[in-house]
């Protein structure tokens, strides 16, 4: 009898325990090809838990380092002498202590508390769950945590750490580029006329960018929308893309990609809408040149009044060899605009200093915006959500829907300044950041606005049924037959020369958009769009070589230096055999890259913007075909050719090598050749002498997505060129890099039935921990 009663009691305990377990919300994770997680959960907290867990599983070491960076704790976990990298500044190193102090200045506790107060409950739950999921993996996999500890100590995270990561993403193309300059700011001493930064000279702001097309029902083969998303972004570091599919039934169902640590889809699609982003041309902030009080260089003049800078001390910690904390403190100098900064091009003298107003410092709406995007059912609804939230930091939006709409908008964050203010207050100082930040006079209150961010009502957008396109130029030529004009200059230039990538992007659509009889014109398909993206064609090469090659013989005859003459002869010979494409079998493409890079110096601008190189100048009435007629008579052209050949000789690379033999990455000992170059299909590898063009990869083809729609929903194919995981022991470390090399697209399963059919392992149930 006792045994029977004990057995009954045990069964009851088991039943109650199982019931209790079942009552706890859970995320179901199904993994499909290339390690893509499809996470379904009944609540946003459970969704975040599942996603935080699988992202820690995918890249625990990288995730931990990323959160330490944005939380200002790199020195504590990775050493005071360690470095972070400013990936968009040529991978310029930044000391961990410097990085921590600036992060804690620009993303302080007050900013985090404000973001938490403003967050809707869905975001609160998502961040809570994401932190819990990351921490649960950290706790349950001590061996992985120990392996990462060789690179730095790992700590659990809090929702505030994810908020800080989002704030860092908002300021990526403003304050995020200027950590060293903000730290270096110190007033001149009594025996010094001015103080300049100790850091290396400015190296440029990088080349983050993208291509995007959206086609509507009047051009597509099935009368529905069609999207190409082609962000050119980083292959490593905290801004690398991962693929994901997140579902809260009845509330949110979106698939695509996000950069590391962002707990929602950033670029992707839902059942009836597909969207992507391109880096926009808005000025993300203002560098104010301060006129200083002649009596005190820590005071600045505003409308004739002397105002004091505020000294703000920030402290962070590291550990000594014995594990004891060491405090690191630094005094920053703050103004009504923001922090004072300093570089060799922006010295702090007795007369002037520079202060940064970062328009995205107050932008805590990123997650709300991407949640709203993912919930939008069509392009008009998307426009309303972008207009209402105005939370995107530095990107355009391009979208297509199942109803056959094509949509473009630049609804992002920039300062609210009139054209008159920009014109009257501009300062001619060359800072190296003019493409991202306006440089204005800070001594007059008329040169700044107290209204904050430029409102959405003043921003450009376009809804059509044929197509819209953007390749990082301004809004002006989104559609060549309907230019967007009359918008504030701080958003971007109008009636100005377009990038060659923009021109190629529209010109290569001619078979579909230029038919004399639209009723008989071919209709564009997803397959045609995929081929177009990876064709390797180069408008830049066509425009230059049609004039350069015929001029080779005459040019070499005029070069008196024998060594230079022979280099030019060899360069011309190699380029004469090039097919003007960036395919693996194309010979001489890398030489052309080097040649063009030298033609663009010192400004590094798009070749089409170098007016002196073209005989027919830019014409705002013919922007797709001008400038043109490359001027091959200039001595600088042949100097550039000689220099390019010399560089490849020094690097021990044949001039006529096939691109695939000199441009590649190595993954687990295997060379993976890479197509693409400085053209529509972008690839920017680093020249390593004696080896070739390889890692690190600067912003390049990263996540390529093509989405069409049929009666059953979205039909999506993608390539994540960098692959899902950065860990060499992962099966998803190089699989999509190989697919990119082979131009092999993968179908993305979206419906529950398609996901179940494509699963490569049984679904996992991840239950939330008890509170």
Structural topology:
Elements: H1 2-23, E1 26-32, E2 36-40, H2 44-70, H3 74-78, E3 83-86, E4 92-95, H4 96-106, H5 109-118, H6 121-140, H7 142-149, H8 159-170, H9 179-184, E5 194-195, E6 209-215, E7 226-233, E8 241-248, E9 252-259, E10 267-269, E11 273-279, E12 285-293, E13 296-302, E14 305-308, E15 310-319, E16 325-334, E17 340-341, E18 348-349, E19 352-358, H10 366-375, H11 379-389, E20 395-401, E21 406-409, H12 419-425, E22 437-441, E23 461-464, E24 467-470, H13 500-507, H14 510-513, H15 526-533, H16 539-558, H17 562-576, H18 589-599, E25 614-616, E26 628-630, H19 635-650, H20 659-662, E27 664-667, E28 670-673, E29 684-688, E30 692-698, E31 700-701, E32 703-710, E33 713-720, H21 735-742, E34 746-748, H22 752-758, E35 764-767
Helix pairs in contact: 2-6, 2-8, 5-8, 6-8, 10-11, 16-17, 17-19, 18-19
Structure report:
It is a single chain. With 771 residues, the protein is an alpha+beta fold. Among the domains are: 155 residues, Penicillin Amidohydrolase, domain 1 (Orthogonal Bundle), CATH 1.10.439; 94 residues, Aminohydrolase, N-terminal nucleophile (Ntn) domain, beta-sheet knob region (Penicillin G acylase, beta-roll domain), CATH 2.30.120; 142 residues, Aminohydrolase, alpha-helical knob region (Penicillin amidase (Acylase) alpha subunit, N-terminal domain, Orthogonal Bundle). It contains 22 helices and 35 strands. A hairpin with a 7-residue loop joins strand 9 and strand 10. Helix 2 crosses helix 6. It starts with a helix and ends with a strand. The N terminus is likely disordered. Pfam families: Penicil_amidase (PF01804). Belongs to the peptidase S45 family.
């Amino acid at each position: 009898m006792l045994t029977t009663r004990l057995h009954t009691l045990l069964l009851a305990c088991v039943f109650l325990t199982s019931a209790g377990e079942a009552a706890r919300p859970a995320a179901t994770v199904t993994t499909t090809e290339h390690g893509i997680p499809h996470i379904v959960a009944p609540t946003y907290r459970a969704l975040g838990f599942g996603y935080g867990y699988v992202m820690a599983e995918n890249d625990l070491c990288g995730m931990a380092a990323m959160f330490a960076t944005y939380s200002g704790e790199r020195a504590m976990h990775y050493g005071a002498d360690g470095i972070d990298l400013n990936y968009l500044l040529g991978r310029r190193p930044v000391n961990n202590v410097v990085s921590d102090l600036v992060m804690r200045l620009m993303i302080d506790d007050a900013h985090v508390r404000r973001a938490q107060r403003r967050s809707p409950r869905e975001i609160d739950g998502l961040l809570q769950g994401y932190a819990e999921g990351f921490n649960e993996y950290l706790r349950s996999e001590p061996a992985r945590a120990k392996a990462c500890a060789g690179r730095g100590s790992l700590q659990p995270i809090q929702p505030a750490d994810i908020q800080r990561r989002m704030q860092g993403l908002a300021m990526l193309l403003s304050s995020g580029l200027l950590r060293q300059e903000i730290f270096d700011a110190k007033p001149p001493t009594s025996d010094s006329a001015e103080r300049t930064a100790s850091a290396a000279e400015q190296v440029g702001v990088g080349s983050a960018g993208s291509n995007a097309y959206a086609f509507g029902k009047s051009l597509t083969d099935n009368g529905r929308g069609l999207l190409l998303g082609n962000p050119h972004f980083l292959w490593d570091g905290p801004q690398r893309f991962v693929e994901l599919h997140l579902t809260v039934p009845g509330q949110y169902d979106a698939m695509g990609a996000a950069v590391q640590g962002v707990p929602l889809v950033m670029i992707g699609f839902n059942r009836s809408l597909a969207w992507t982003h391109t880096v926009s041309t808005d000025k993300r902030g203002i560098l104010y040149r301060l006129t200083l009080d002649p009596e005190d260089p820590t005071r600045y003049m505003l409308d004739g009044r002397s105002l004091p800078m505020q000294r703000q001390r920030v402290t962070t910690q590291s550990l000594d060899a014995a594990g004891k904390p060491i405090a690191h403190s630094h005094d920053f100098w703050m103004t009504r605009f923001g922090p004072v900064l300093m570089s060799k091009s922006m010295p702090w003298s007795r007369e002037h200093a520079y202060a940064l107003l970062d328009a995205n410092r107050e932008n805590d709406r990123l997650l709300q915006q991407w949640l709203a995007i993912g919930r939008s059912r069509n392009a008009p609804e998307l426009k309303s959500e972008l207009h209402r939230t105005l939370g995107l930091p530095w990107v355009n939006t391009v979208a297509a829907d199942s109803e056959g709409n094509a949509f473009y908008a630049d609804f992002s964050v920039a300062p609210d300044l009139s054209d008159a203010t920009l014109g009257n207050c501009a300062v001619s100082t060359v800072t190296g950041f003019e493409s991202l930040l306006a440089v204005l006079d800070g001594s007059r209150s008329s040169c700044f606005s107290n209204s904050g961010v430029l409102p959405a009502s003043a921003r450009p957008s376009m809804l059509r049924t044929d197509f819209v396109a953007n390749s990082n130029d301004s809004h002006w030529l989104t559609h060549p037959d309907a230019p967007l004009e009359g918008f504030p200059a701080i958003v971007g230039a109008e009636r100005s020369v377009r990038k060659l990538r923009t021109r190629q992007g529209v010109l290569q659509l001619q078979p579909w958009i230029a038919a004399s009889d639209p009723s008989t014109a071919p209709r564009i398909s997803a397959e045609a769009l995929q081929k177009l993206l990876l064709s390797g064609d180069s408008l830049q090469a066509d425009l230059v070589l049609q004039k350069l090659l015929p001029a080779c013989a005459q040019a070499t005859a005029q070069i008196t230096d024998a060594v230079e003459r022979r280099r030019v002869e060899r360069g011309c010979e190699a380029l004469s055999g090039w097919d003007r494409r960036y395919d693996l079998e194309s010979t001489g493409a890398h030489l052309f890259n080097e040649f063009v890079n030298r033609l663009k110096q010192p400004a590094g601008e798009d070749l089409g913007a170098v007016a002196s190189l073209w005989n027919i100048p830019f014409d705002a009435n013919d922007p797709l075909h001008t400038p043109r007629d490359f001027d091959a008579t200039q001595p600088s052209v042949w100097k550039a050719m000689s220099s390019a050949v010399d560089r490849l000789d020094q690097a021990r690379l044949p001039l006529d090598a096939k691109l695939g033999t000199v441009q590649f990455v190595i993954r687990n000992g295997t060379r993976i050749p890479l197509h693409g170059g400085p053209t529509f299909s972008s690839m920017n590898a680093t020249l390593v002498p004696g080896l070739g063009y390889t890692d690190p990869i600067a912003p390049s083809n990263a996540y390529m997505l093509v989405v069409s729609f049929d009666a059953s929903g979205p039909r999506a194919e993608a390539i994540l060129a960098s692959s899902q995981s950065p860990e060499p022991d992962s099966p998803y470390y190089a699989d999509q890099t190989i697919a990119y090399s082979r131009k092999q697209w993968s179908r993305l399963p979206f419906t529950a039935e398609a996901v179940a059919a494509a699963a490569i392992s049984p679904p996992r149930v991840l239950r939330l921990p008890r509170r």
